[in-house]
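Hi V.,

Quick status before I head out on leave. The structure for the redesign project is tokenized and pasted below; the design run finished overnight.
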């Protein structure tokens, strides 16, 4: 079992209104073909952790923060901004909780965007966009703008967009929050099948522990301590 991403003793602190929040990650490993669930109460740092792994936020320190690309290990903590941008574009698929779709693009164009930015063959990208849209149940919405979709449909578009370029690491922040229970099951099945097929790794943030117990291979959560601010430490969840 190959290690896709490895973290050791990572730390990030943020201060707002004289209150400090500190996230500590003693150990985190993501493996090829496996799904890791991140669960926990509101405000514990789930989205902050996901933003760090997506290279949106830079940690204050990290003993080890590396991603494997083939036989090569990339130090994400010391990578330059240009290197990080390249990694985000090629190796990471990020499903934002808000969807993050571009309102001036159609559903089809939103899904195809990462592939186009990477210079993938246009016919391949269009074909894969249709395949993903069908799998997500939104094939009849391809020509619409996001404003004409429901919240659940927009989330499905965001998931398809994150998978279009077959990234090695898929990060999904509450991808089932805006859909019904049956659709949530379908989304989890699709995400899990996709990462196995593409030999990728999936980290999924969710408030639904029962759903994660059913589909995740492993689980992590957080231990909160309140003293001169809040310290949230990532711990095993099972």
């Amino acid at each position: 079992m190959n290690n896709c991403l490895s973290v050791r003793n990572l730390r990030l602190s943020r201060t707002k209104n004289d209150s400090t929040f500190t996230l500590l990650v003693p150990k985190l490993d993501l493996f090829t073909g496996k799904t890791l669930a991140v669960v926990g109460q509101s405000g514990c740092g789930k989205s902050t952790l996901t933003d760090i792994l997506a290279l949106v936020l830079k940690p204050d320190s990290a003993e080890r923060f590396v991603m494997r690309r083939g036989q090569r290990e990339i130090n994400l903590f010391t990578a330059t901004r240009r290197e990080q941008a390249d990694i985000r574009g090629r190796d990471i698929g990020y499903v934002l909780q808000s969807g993050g779709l571009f309102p001036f693009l159609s559903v089809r164009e939103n899904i195809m965007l990462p592939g186009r930015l990477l210079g993938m063959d246009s016919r391949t990208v269009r074909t894969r966009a249709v395949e993903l849209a069908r799998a997500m149940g939104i094939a009849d919405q391809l020509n619409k703008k996001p404003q004409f979709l429901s919240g659940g449909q927009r989330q499905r578009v965001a998931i398809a967009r994150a998978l279009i370029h077959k990234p090695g690491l898929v990060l999904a922040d509450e991808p089932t929050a805006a859909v019904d229970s049956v659709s949530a099951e379908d989304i989890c099945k699709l995400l899990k099948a996709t990462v196995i097929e593409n030999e990728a790794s999936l980290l999924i943030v969710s408030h639904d522990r029962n759903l994660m117990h059913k589909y995740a291979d492993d689980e992590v959560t957080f231990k909160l301590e309140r003293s001169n601010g809040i310290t949230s430490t990532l711990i095993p969840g099972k």
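Above is the designed sequence. Residues 37 and 219 are 5 Å apart (CA to CA).

G. will cover questions while I'm gone.

Best,
W.
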